[in-house]
Design a protein that fits this description.
Order of helices and strands: HEEHHEHEHHH
Distance between the termini: 36 Å
Strand order of the largest sheet: 2-1-3-4
Strand content: 15-25%
Structural class: alpha+beta
Largest sheet: 4 strands, mixed
Helix content: 40-55%
Radius of gyration: 19 Å
Number of strands: 4
């Protein structure tokens, strides 16, 4: 953390402040801010308990706020500052938003010591699909074909060819 500038420490400090504020309402201790061009464009504190929503993590809410503020879903020029190392879902959300950098305070180990399952989820995702606790199944040929037809229709309507991401 010694490599952070004064401004970056301030952004991380805001994320930590949001995590502290989350506790006041009976929430969990997580906060995050998205910064673009030196300005906070989205912030969030964990609202999982309050909203009864397992996806209402601080980073996800910060990305949603940034997207609304900027009118776009990609944050290729943004930085995510998070009070703790993002869980797998939040890290994936940063990838989906194309956030190029994440700066965090507490580590996943720290979070695990506080009773949260982030490290267990990271370990689970590293397993091959058959080894995972969550059973994920492919639909039958008819159902899968119907779903592929929708995808094919969408691709056919795009203005430029799709580059497969295999």
């Amino acid at each position: 953390m010694s490599g952070l500038s004064v401004g970056e420490r301030g952004f991380l400090g805001r994320a930590v402040a949001l995590s502290r504020e989350s506790l006041v309402g009976g929430g969990t201790p997580f906060g995050a801010v998205v910064v673009v061009e030196g300005r906070v464009v989205g912030e969030g504190a964990s609202r999982v308990v309050e909203l009864v929503d397992p996806t209402a993590h601080a980073e996800v809410l910060a990305l949603r706020g940034a997207a609304r503020e900027l009118g776009r879903h990609l944050m290729e020029d943004g930085v995510m500052y998070s009070s703790s190392e993002p869980c797998p879902m939040c890290l994936a959300a940063c990838y989906w938003a194309r956030v190029p950098r994440v700066v965090f305070g507490a580590s996943s180990r720290d979070v695990a010591l506080a009773g949260f399952e982030d490290l267990q989820l990271y370990r689970e995702l590293a397993l091959s699909a058959p080894e995972r606790a969550l059973r994920v199944e492919s639909a039958d040929a008819e159902s899968g074909g119907a779903a592929r037809e929708v995808l094919d229709g969408w691709v056919a309507g795009l203005p430029s060819p799709v580059v497969p991401k295999l």
